[in-house]
Amino acid sequence: MKSRTAVLIILLIIIADQALKIWVKTTMSYHEQIPLIGSWFRLFFIENEGMAWGWKFGG
Asked: Residue 59 and residue 57: Cα distance in Å, rounded?
């Protein structure tokens, strides 16, 4: 039962993550920001040009 709950939580997080990414790419302009909790918490639209953490591949 614990593993089923863990898998469900992981799936919900992945689905929410992908839905938010799709929403941002379809509704926001590049470098746009939306304040969610005043100026303390904002949603920015930026894109990573490299692989994970901005690492470049190749040279």
From this structure: 6
What CA–CA distance (Å, rounded) separates 28 from 43?
10
Beta-bridge partner residues of 37? 41
pTM above 0.70, yes or no: no
Containing H/E element for 33? Answer: strand 33-37
Q: Which residues contact 7 (CB under 8 A, 6 or more apart)?
A: none
Decide the pairing of beta strands 41-44 and 33-37: antiparallel
pLDDT digits (tens, 9 = 90+) for 2-25: 899 999 999 999 999 999 999 999
